[in-house]
Design a protein that fits this description.
The protein is an alpha/beta fold and about 250 residues long. Helix content is about 35%, strand content about 15%.
């Protein structure tokens, strides 16, 4: 609803749930999760700035600016408070939303969130930004999961269609260079995270090749950590049931 910011809405009711995808994704990354959650209320699956239908939004690549834009969009929709779910880059944005407007965020479910440590795999991000072929894209997305994981064909097709849009591949390459320069990402200080008072759940796979599982150490004591042994980075696809369960438990928390 905000200028240049797109969200796909499903469900209805007084309870609102916000879904934020990771780098290189879009709202359709939640296709197997959003309809399930829509039984619980209004679910908004966003295209983050620089992605999909939000390609031209000016906040692309800046997590703090994205958080501000999302809060403004919720304002425009008349949504005072929402449960926020963020995956990878979207996890960093979700945490920043909670820090910026704690009275607006009912709970946070953070799936292998960005910004929780300095390391990030720059080659893997670059590999999915502007691949030369669909096979290369499939390979790059699969490499972000645990060994042996293969990204489903329907997800690869969605990702390939998005990258076919004019300017999208260039924009993703630009964002990747900005958020993962020399294998380092911006960090959210643990002291700032410790100030979050709403229920917070962090879900992480021990075989994550993008954002190391070690970044789940030393979380604030009020955070709940769900460890998924042998699971890689692509939690919405690799561990859908565990993700949905974690979201619902956190919302009840």
């Amino acid at each position: 609803m905000s200028d240049g910011l797109y969200a796909r809405a499903k469900g209805a009711g007084p309870q609102a749930i916000v879904l934020l995808h990771g780098f290189g994704g879009n709202n359709m990354d939640w296709n197997d999760i959003q309809p399930d959650l829509a039984r619980d209320g209004l679910v908004l699956a966003y295209d983050l700035p620089g992605h999909g239908r939000s390609l031209d939004h000016g906040a692309a690549g800046n997590a703090s600016a994205m958080a501000k834009a999302l809060l403004a969009d919720l304002d425009a929709r008349g949504i005072d408070k929402a449960h926020v779910v963020g995956f990878s880059m979207g996890g960093a944005v979700a945490a920043l939303m909670g820090m910026r407007a704690p009275d607006r965020v009912a709970s946070l479910t953070l799936l292998a969130p960005g910004g929780f440590g300095p390391q990030i795999s720059e080659p893997l991000l670059i590999g999915i930004a502007a691949p030369a072929t669909t096979d290369a894209l499939r390979s790059g997305l699969s490499a972000m999961g645990a060994p042996g994981f293969e990204m489903p064909t329907k997800n690869v097709a969605v990702a390939a269609a998005m990258r076919a849009a004019a300017g999208q591949a260039d924009k993703l390459s630009e964002i990747a260079a900005r958020i993962a320069k020399d294998g380092q990402q911006g960090e959210i200080p643990r002291s700032a995270l410790a100030g979050l008072k709403m229920p917070v759940t962090v879900v992480w796979g021990t075989a994550d090749p993008v954002l190391p599982y070690a970044q789940s150490r030393d979380l604030p004591e009020q955070f709940r950590l769900i460890t998924l042994p042998g699971v890689g980075h692509m939690l919405p696809e690799e561990a859908r049931k565990a993700v949905v369960q974690a979201i619902r438990q956190t919302m009840r928390g």
